[in-house]
Specification:
There is one protein chain. This protein has 317 residues and is an alpha+beta fold. It has 2 domains: 3-96 and 135-182, PhyR, sigma-like (SL) domain (Butyryl-CoA Dehydrogenase, subunit A, domain 3, Up-down Bundle); 190-303, Nuclear Transport Factor 2, Chain: A (Roll), CATH 3.10.450.50. 54% of the residues lie in helices and 14% in strands. A 7-stranded mixed sheet has the order 1-4-5-6-7-2-3. Strand 5 and strand 6 form a beta hairpin. The longest helix is centred in the first third of the chain and has 28 residues, at 3-30. The chain is globular.
Length: 317
């Protein structure tokens, strides 16, 4: 192996050490698994080009000091550009609604210990939080995610958003108030949430309207990201009675549901005949469901990394 190839391999190995943190930053910034991967890959390309330029320049080989900080800054900039582009597209389109968009979930089997799920649960990164983060201005989201979730100093974040450290602190403060006022303080006990989710499935299967009401917070919100699917399902409903009534419309699906982990906590996949129809996550506070987020967009479901599910009978049997 020549010197250049050896240096490249060493750089790649060092980059891989930072990849989990970079993936975590990008996912919390973007709420999209594919875009997060693209952002992290772009950081690798920039690092490789930077190191190649340093090695070929005057003085010979050089390297980035504080590689972790440098990479976090690069990923932050890439994500900020993506968020600004996304915001521009939304402003130009009358069809895009933040009210019913559900960010990409990280899904795994409920009977397997998954380090990524554990990290999400420990950080309280549920879909309900990502939904709120989607409503923030790009610079606010960056300041909040990097400072409050990853302890990046404000003077470093200020360089990315091109503000003063004091102005950057204000960005994070505004975002924090929005998050605290909107995102429910979800249950962190997996066993307790599973009890609620399984009770929800049982009540839905039995068509027990009163039992469904008992599980729901009076001000519960149900958000359904259905894409072009026309199913009679209202995409955003509020209130226990309305949510329970909508759940009753899909009682037949309850016999085809599997408990899975969605961002670290129990949720449900409905898969009649082994084909995924919907994925639901639950925010539970004090034993009551305060928010349900459902993805029923067939195209999105095909692109999600769902764990293998055992075959189930077709819908209606």
């Amino acid at each position: 192996m020549d010197v250049n190839a050896s240096a490249e391999a060493d750089l790649a190995a060092r980059f891989e050490e930072h990849r989990p943190r970079l993936n975590a930053v990008a996912y919390r910034m973007l709420g999209s698994l594919s875009e997060s991967e693209d952002a992290v890959q772009e950081a690798w390309f920039r690092l490789s080009r930077t190191q190649a330029a340093a090695a070929s320049g005057p003085g010979g080989a050089g390297e980035v000091r504080n590689l972790g900080g440098w990479l976090t800054t690069v990923v932050g900039r890439v994500c900020l550009d993506l968020l600004r582009s996304r915001q521009s597209r939304r402003e130009e389109s009358l069809e895009v609604s933040l009210e019913t968009h559900v960010p990409d979930p990280v899904v795994s089997r409920a009977d397997v210990v998954d380090p990524e799920q554990e990290a999400l649960r420990a950080d309280s990164v549920g879909l309900a939080l990502l939904v709120v983060l989607d409503t923030l201005a790009p610079a606010e989201r960056l300041a909040f995610v990097l400072h409050d979730m990853f302890a990046v100093p404000f003077d470093e974040i200020a360089v990315i958003v091109e503000r003063t450290p004091a102005a950057t602190r204000q960005l994070a403060s505004r975002a924090r108030r929005r998050v605290q006022g909107s995102a429910p303080a979800k249950e962190t006990d997996v066993a307790k949430q599973r009890e609620v989710v399984e009770a929800w499935t049982a009540a839905t299967k039995a068509g027990d309207f009163d039992a469904l009401l008992e599980l729901l917070d009076p001000d519960v919100v149900l958000r359904s990201d259905t894409g072009e699917l026309s199913s009679g399902l209202s995409k955003l409903v509020r209130g226990a009675a309305t949510v329970a009534a909508q759940a009753a419309m899909f009682a037949r699906l309850a016999v085809h549901q599997h408990v899975v982990l969605v961002n670290g906590l129990p949720g449900l996949v409905a898969a009649p005949g082994g084909e995924v129809f919907s994925l639901g996550s639950f925010s539970v506070v004090d034993g009551k469901i305060v928010e349900i987020n459902i993805i029923a967009d067939p195209e999105r479901l095909r692109n999600l990394r769902l764990p293998p599910l055992p075959p189930l009978p077709p819908l209606g049997e």
